[in-house]
Write a structure and sequence with these properties.
Blueprint lengths: L3 E3 L2 E6 L2 E6 L3 E7 L4 E7 L4 E5 L4 E6 L2 E6 L1
Antiparallel strand pairs: 1-2, 2-3, 3-6, 4-5, 4-7, 7-8
């Protein structure tokens, strides 16, 4: 899939891998559609971080912002 950029965060999903590149350090949390924590990433500024996830719909939350992602 083509990467999407939201508020300085580059989001890419390919083959069950969620890849994030942020403009600043922080923590990204991934929740299932049912609200359970599926995983999290410690983000470093301008460094790509990846998380393997099964097929499904998730919510990615960083700080006070969230976005829906499909794997």
């Amino acid at each position: 899939n083509d990467p999407v950029t939201i508020s300085g965060l580059r989001i890419r999903t390919t083959g069950g891998i969620l890849s994030l590149t942020a403009g600043r350090s922080g923590r990204a949390e991934v929740y299932t559609f049912g609200g359970q924590l599926a995983g999290y990433l410690h983000l470093l500024a301008d460094v790509e971080s990846s998380l393997s996830l099964p097929h499904g719909v998730y919510f990615l939350r960083i700080g006070n912002e969230s976005v829906k992602i499909c794997m």
